[in-house]
Amino acid sequence: MPMIRPVSFSDAQQLLNIYNYYVINTDVTFDLQPLSLQEFQDKLHEITKAFPFIIYEENNEILGYAYAGKFRSRPAYNHTLESTVYVKHNHYGKQIGSKLYAELIKQLKQTNCRVVLGVLTLPNNASVKLHEKYGFTKVGHLREVGYKFNTWLDVGIFELKLS
Fold first, then answer.
1. CA distances (Å), origin 11, targets 8, 46, 99, 104, 162
2. What is the pLDDT of residue 92?
3. Measured distance CA(7)–CA(28) in Å, rounded
4. N or C: which end of the chain has fewer CB within 10 A?
5. Sign of the torsion angle spanned by Cα atoms 71, 25, 127, 141
6. Per-residue model confidence as pLDDT tens digits over 33-52
7. What's the first-to-final CA gap in the chain, in angstroms?
8. With the CA atoms of 60, 32, 37 and 6 taken in that order, what torsion angle do they form, in degrees rounded to the nearest 10?
9. Mind spelling out the 3-state secondary structure of the chain?
C-alpha cells in the first residue's frame, strides 16, 4: 500500500539515488556533480530542523520526495520558502509528484509560511503543469542563468501565496 510519510535519516541513500540520477542525466538541478551520501545527509539534517520533508513509499521503495526550505537566508525572507519535488525517474505518470505536492502544501499551510516558490529549469512542461495544478503562478523568467551540459539554461519562478 503506498504511503506518504515524514522522512527518516535511514532513507538518505534511496533519496540520494533518486537525486543523483537527475544530477547526472538532466538539467532540472544545477548541481554538476553527484552528491556524496555525507553531503546529502547534511542537507537532510539542515532541512528537517525547520521544514517539512516527506517521502512517497510503496512496497518499501521510495518513489519520490518533496520538501520546503529557505528561499534566501536574510531574515525578511523567513516567511517565504522554496519547494522541491523529485520522483524516481522510472515512475513517472503515477501522480506521485501531485500527491507529494498536495501533502507538502497542506503541511505548509499549517506553518507561518506565507509564500512558496517553485524555481524550475525551463523548459520543463511536466514541472510547470504540476505547479500550475496547485495554483502556482509564473512570476519570473531568468534567461540563461545556469550552464550545464554545454547549454545555457533558463529558470522560471512560480509563486503560490498561502495566506
1. 5, 15, 19, 18, 29
2. 85
3. 22
4. N
5. positive
6. 999 999 999 999 999 999 99
7. 34
8. -40
9. CCEEEECCHHHHHHHHHHHHHHHHHCCCCCCCCCCCHHHHHHHHHHHHCCCCEEEEEECCEEEEEEEEEECCCCHHHCCEEEEEEEECCCCCCCCHHHHHHHHHHHHHCCCCCCEEEEEEEECCHHHHHHHHHCCCEEEEEEEEEEEECCEEEEEEEEEEECC
State pLDDT tens for residues 58-112. 999 999 999 999 999 999 999 999 999 999 999 988 999 999 999 999 999 999 9
Pairing of strands 3-6, 80-87: unpaired
pLDDT of residue 12: 97
Angle at 112 between CA 110 and CA 114, to 5 degrees: 100
> How many residues belong to the chain?
163
Is the whole model's pTM more than 0.85, yes or no? yes
Distance CA 33, CA 20 (A): 8
Q: Which three cell numbers stand for residue 11?
A: 532513507
